[in-house]
């Protein structure tokens, strides 16, 4: 049964699109810790940016537009990568209302561009396309959505990610089902948290900015429930999925039957925004407080209840969350607090990765 195999990743060549984003920076750091050689492709001009301050051994960065298929094809070929992890995206729901065309361009056509560029890469064995838990048609169910449930999207972001799933499935069946072609699968996760995320319209970055300046955190939709999980949880899932795809490629050259995978927390860890804000404030310490934002955001709706069922990943990949929601929030708060006190981002990420891998090893032995 699949587990995170350190030997598999040691000296393996991996290309990551969207490596400068929050998840991309953590993924690149995790792969560095596992001994992989990584090439990152993408660009991100936001400041501050976690990726820019990290020390990353055996890593090369290529700055380019994900829709530049020719440049991306060259990067994949020159990297010699056997695994492609596609994370490049416009990741903010509220931002998608401001720039719907840019969101569709990056999330839909960017996925098509990446898979088109990968068609001629002879070294590739596995491709993981990262989308979102928001790809599902949200019916307000209390239980988690499964990979076979209907896709849809109320807002431009959700619709773009659902469309990316359809693009990936179509391209996979049209071009990557033949013998010798890399195996392709999509991975769905959302509401990841952890230190170093400085994006707008996100709860924990907003909390860190407010508390670092002794200000009150103002939150929207305090009763909204989300499937919170530490960023390392789905990232390890993506790597275990890539291992599974690679071994399928090497063993049978047959089509991977399961094309989509959920990576989400246990149902009990889907808690309201207000509870997360409270845990974060308690871990931060003296002077950290929050209150509901009275601003009317009715025009910019976000899903109030949304969770995914990750039983497929648990049963087939032996993947499951190691840090429950309170632990994940507390670790994120400690990261931001210690960073505000002057500790380097590289050391803080190393601390969390080492602790997580230790917890992973311990549970695999029991």
Give the key terms.
366 residues, alpha/beta, 7-stranded parallel sheet, two-stranded parallel ribbon, globular
Overview of the molecule:
- The strands form four sheets. A seven-stranded parallel β-sheet has the order 3-2-1-4-5-6-11, sandwiched between helices. It has a two-stranded parallel ribbon with strand order 7-10.
- The longest helix is centred in the C-terminal third of the chain and has 21 residues, at 345-365.
- The mean pLDDT is 92.
- The protein is an alpha/beta fold.
- It contains twelve helices and 13 strands.
Strand percent estimate: 5-15%
Helical residues, percent: 40-55%
Structural class: alpha/beta
Mean pLDDT: 92
Q: What form results from the Cα inertia axes?
A: globular
The N- to C-terminal Cα distance equals 15 Å
Question: Residue ranges: pLDDT <50 for 5 or more in a row?
Answer: none
Q: How would you sum up the major sheet?
A: 7 strands, parallel
Task: Characterize this entry briefly.
The protein has 366 residues and is an alpha/beta fold.
């Amino acid at each position: 049964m699949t587990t995170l195999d350190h030997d598999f990743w040691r000296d393996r060549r991996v290309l990551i699109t969207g490596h400068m984003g929050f998840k991309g920076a953590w993924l690149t750091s995790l792969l560095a810790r596992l001994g992989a050689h990584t090439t990152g492709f993408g660009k991100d001009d936001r400041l501050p940016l976690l990726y820019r301050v990290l020390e990353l051994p055996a890593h090369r960065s290529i700055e380019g537009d994900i829709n530049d298929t020719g440049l991306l094809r060259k990067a994949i070929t020159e990297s010699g990568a056997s695994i492609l992890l596609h994370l490049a995206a416009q990741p903010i729901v509220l931002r998608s209302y401001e720039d719907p065309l840019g969101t569709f361009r990056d999330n839909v056509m960017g996925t098509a561009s990446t898979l088109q560029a990968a068609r001629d890469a002879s070294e590739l064995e596995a491709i993981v396309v990262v989308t979102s838990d928001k790809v599902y048609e949200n019916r307000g169910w209390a239980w988690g959505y499964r990979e076979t449930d209907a896709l849809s999207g109320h807002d431009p972001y959700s619709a773009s990610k659902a469309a990316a799933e359809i693009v990936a499935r179509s391209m996979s069946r049209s071009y990557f089902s033949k013998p010798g072609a890399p195996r392709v699968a999509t991975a769905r996760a959302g509401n990841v948290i952890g230190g170093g995320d400085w994006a707008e319209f996100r709860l924990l970055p907003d909390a860190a900015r407010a508390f670092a300046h002794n200000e009150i955190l103002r939150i929207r939709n305090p009763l909204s429930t989300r499937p919170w999980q530490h960023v390392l949880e789905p990232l390890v899932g993506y790597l275990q999925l890539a291992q599974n795809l690679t071994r399928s490629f090497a063993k049978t050259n047959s089509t991977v039957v399961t094309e989509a995978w959920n990576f989400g927390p246990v149902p009990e860890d889907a808690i309201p925004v207000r509870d997360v804000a409270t845990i974060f404030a308690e871990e931060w310490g003296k002077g950290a407080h929050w209150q509901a934002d009275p601003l009317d955001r009715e025009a910019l709706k976000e899903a109030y209840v949304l969770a995914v069922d990750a039983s497929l990943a648990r049963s087939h990949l032996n993947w499951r969350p190691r840090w429950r929601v309170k632990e994940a929030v507390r670790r994120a708060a400690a990261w931001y607090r210690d960073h505000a006190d002057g500790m380097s981002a590289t050391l803080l990420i190393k601390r969390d990765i080492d602790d997580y891998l230790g917890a992973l090893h311990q549970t695999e032995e029991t």
